[in-house]
Design a protein that fits this description.
It is built from 9 helices and 13 strands. The chain is α+β, with helices and mostly antiparallel strands. A hairpin with a 4-residue loop joins strand 3 and strand 4. Helix 2 crosses helix 3. It is globular.
Length: 367
């Protein structure tokens, strides 16, 4: 994969149950909430997220029978998302946002947990000299909340820029059809806002029921993510193929950020050894050239225009190994869950953060 225009320089293991503190002390609903069950549920979810705390898991049932819809021995707060399961767990929402704010990205904030969250927890534990098991135990939860006591959700007023697009309605699957588009933009304002705040669209909906996200001036509830930029320049990047993760380090060896990633596959593996960053291309085109890549089924060269739903997302970090790079994705929910064509794929917001802190010449080591 390579951008087609000149680059411009720029950068579960089953986990314990998370209980909610103070859930029985909610204030009486306002009149408008009482009249609108959806608004009341959203207000309850918001308060539950802000007040979430950790308690040890209850003993597993001796019979092995699980509650309806649950797998035996799996904590509901951090289980892998099951098909059709979009119920955010308040404590997991809080933990994921705090991890995101401390630069240990869980990928998409969905309140469901999963392997990306487990790996982010493990990286957080390692960085804070805690036993590394990837479990969100009392020690990890206390360290997360002690380091950041601010609210994890915030009000946001939708701006005219948020709803100006261009929005494309839908993105065709074939590269040929995408190549005929003027831009491979967001489908709609809802998708754009969810990505802006690192959230799943399902969580955005749960916090804002019946909202028309395409209308400016409305105030919505979103994740209170941290600053977009890293604190220091990145001097070294390590791509861990076995872990499906990327780590960015400062010149003094400090870990600046951890990102879950999709890294190659058996048929199209990622490179090995050490390479360097050649250039950064914000908003890249995507070129499929069958004469230069080892994936695909031949055919003709196809150039897909820029856009966040472009196959390489919103930014491309070009590597010295020809046709390989670190880039964004049109589908953040699939990071770490699918294979790539050999490149390193991050969420758009993680790729943009990394791209904003690297310069040509930075070493990238694949392990």
């Amino acid at each position: 994969m390579i951008p087609s225009r000149p680059a411009r320089l720029a950068l579960f293991a089953a986990l314990p149950v998370l209980a909610l503190a103070g859930c029985d002390r909610r204030p009486a609903p306002r009149a408008d909430e009482a009249a609108d069950p959806g608004a009341a549920a959203a207000a309850s979810l918001r308060q539950s997220v802000e007040s979430a705390s950790f308690t040890p898991p209850a003993p597993a049932p001796e019979t092995g029978d699980a509650a309806a819809g649950e797998r035996p021995g799996t904590a509901p707060a951090v289980r892998e998302a099951l098909p059709g399961d979009a119920r955010p767990e308040p404590a997991m929402v809080r933990a994921q946002i705090l991890l995101d704010r401390t630069r240990f990205s869980p990928g998409i904030v969905d309140g469901l947990g999963g392997e990306n969250t487990r790996q982010a927890i493990a990286a957080f534990e390692e960085a804070h000299d805690l036993p590394v098991d990837g479990e969100l135990d009392a020690t990890v939860f206390e360290r997360l909340t002690a380091g950041d006591g601010g609210r994890v959700l915030t009000d946001y007023t939708i701006t005219p820029a948020d709803v100006s697009g261009p929005f494309v309605g839908s993105v065709p699957e074939s590269l040929e059809a995408q190549a005929r588009m003027q831009t491979v933009g967001y489908v709609d304002a809802r998708e754009a806002l969810a990505e802006k705040f690192h959230m799943s669209e399902a969580l955005l909906d749960a916090l804002n029921p019946d909202v028309d996200f395409g209308r400016a001036g409305q105030t919505i509830v979103v994740a209170a993510t941290g600053p977009d930029a890293l604190q220091d320049e990145v001097a070294r990047i390590v791509v861990d193929k076995a872990e499906s993760a990327v780590r960015a380090y400062a010149a003094d060896g400090r870990l600046l950020a951890f990102y879950p990633a999709t890294i190659g596959s058996g048929q199209t593996p990622s490179p090995t050894g050490t390479h360097t960053v050649r250039a950064i291309a914000p908003e890249p085109n995507y070129t499929y050239d069958p004469s230069r890549v080892s994936y695909g089924e031949g055919g003709r060269t196809v150039i897909v225009p820029p856009g966040p739903n472009n196959p390489v997302g919103s930014v491309w970090i070009d590597l010295s190994r020809d046709t390989y790079g670190i880039h964004g994705t049109p589908d953040p929910a699939k990071i770490g869950k699918t294979a790539s064509s050999g490149c390193v794929r991050l969420t758009n917001w993680d790729a943009e953060q990394l791209a904003g802190a690297v310069k040509p010449g930075v070493k990238v080591r694949f392990t």
